[in-house]
Amino acid sequence: MHIAHYLNQFFGGLGGEEHAGAPLEQRDGPVGPGRLLQQTMGPDATVVTTFVCGDNYGAENIEEVTEQVLNAVKAAEVDIFVAGPCFEAGRYGIVAGHLCAAVQDELGIPAVTAMAEENPGVDLYRQDLCIVDSGANATAMQDVMARTSALAHKLIAREPVGRPIDDGYFPRGILRDEMVSETSAQRLVAMALAKGAGDAFDSELVVTTFEPVEAPAPIQDLSGATIAVVTDGGLVPKGNPDRIPNYAAHIWGSYDISEVADLRGEDYEVAHRGYDTRYVQQDPDRLVPVDVLREMEEAGIIGKVFDEFLSTSGLANPLANSRRLGREMAQKLKESGVDAVVLTSA
After folding, report:
1. pTM given for the model
2. Given 34, 109, 290, 291, which residue has the most CB atoms within 10 angstroms?
3. Average pLDDT estimate for 264-277
4. What is the pLDDT of residues 47-85, one digit of tens each?
5. Are residues 64 and 162 in the same domain?
6. How many Å apart are CA 281 and CA 287, to the nearest integer?
7. In this structure, is residue 208 part of a structural domain?
């Protein structure tokens, strides 16, 4: 049984965030967690090749990295492709999920990865892959790798994969017929009684819920307020200096407009694939209304336009990742003394 394994720079032994820009490299045999993977897969299993890549490099060059990995995996004639575990590392999870999906779809080779539920890679690829629930703590590596290996054996043998709760992977939104002794009405009544009594129960329909966000108090006098613009429409300076992805963006940028009264199309571009960007490209103020805010500033309607605008791409962005980006942006704005935000979207 031959295995190909993908790791990021940390688990590949290169180092931490300072090596996140490391390009893809291929090594013979197991590396780091790959030794445990080989052990849990059994005596007949061998990790024949390992890919190691920095999180930033992988996320910013995902198509190039995918092409290189596909070519190498095809040449290695492996039985399965394993990525991670990624735990809560978002960039790692996005690349791992993308590679697993590509290996499955284009090469017909089974693939599996493991991540924490909050990892954006889960929401992006859970319908395409079996993603083992790794939890957030890397100290559980032994158990996570054992569950990943058990699932890998089923995938290699083309055996039916069990229910998510039984095989330890995230639900994929796939419904299969199953014979049960109770009718739907009986099951519904049992759940209602359990809920009323405060007992534990498993719902057959998981509904996405959102925590309520309390609205802040209104600003009584805008003439003394500092106003910032935040957008998920993907406006960035020409050349996209922060390499913000067109979709599923894991990063955001902050761009200086302290001396700018009007945004010009030749100075900007749009990192977003979800709408017709021509109108924003013609006049970026349509998305980031610096021109109108400057007029309001000069008229004394608002106190000051914040010196930077914040931008990312909101396309195909999982909820957990969007929350993280929002928290990071909010922290910067609070520390900078911003009073209110104009939030624009494509």
Report:
1. 0.68
2. 34
3. 94
4. 999 999 999 899 889 899 999 999 999 999 999 999 989
5. yes
6. 9
7. no
Q: Is residue 240 included in any domain, yes or no? A: yes
The domain tally of the chain equals 2
Position 123 scores a pLDDT of 83
Does pLDDT of 126 surpass 80?
Answer: yes
297-321 core/surface letters (b: 16 or more CB in 10 A; e: else): beeeebbebbebbbbbbbbbbbebb
What is the domain range of residue 49?
Answer: 2-167
161, 277: one domain: no
Instruction: Give yes or no: residues 226 and 162 share one domain.
Output: no
Q: Are residues 163 and 50 in the same domain?
A: yes
Q: Are strands 268-270 and 235-237 parallel, antiparallel or unpaired?
A: antiparallel
Mean pLDDT along residues 211-217: 86
Asked if residue 150 and residue 240 are part of one domain, the reply reads: no
Task: Return the number of other C-beta atoms located less than 10 Å from residue 17's C-beta.
Answer: 11
Tell whether 46 is covered by a domain: yes
Domain boundary residue, one of 167, 200, 230: 167
CATH number for the domain that contains residue 70: 3.40.50.2300
Nearest 10 degrees: Cα torsion 192, 198, 204, 210: 110
Buried b (16+ CB within 10 A) or exposed e, 232-246: bbbbbeeebebbbbb
Taking each helix axis from N to C end, the angle separating 62-76 and 90-102, rounded to the nearest 10 degrees, works out to: 50
Give the mean pLDDT of 299-304.
97
- Average pLDDT over the chain, rounded to whole? 91
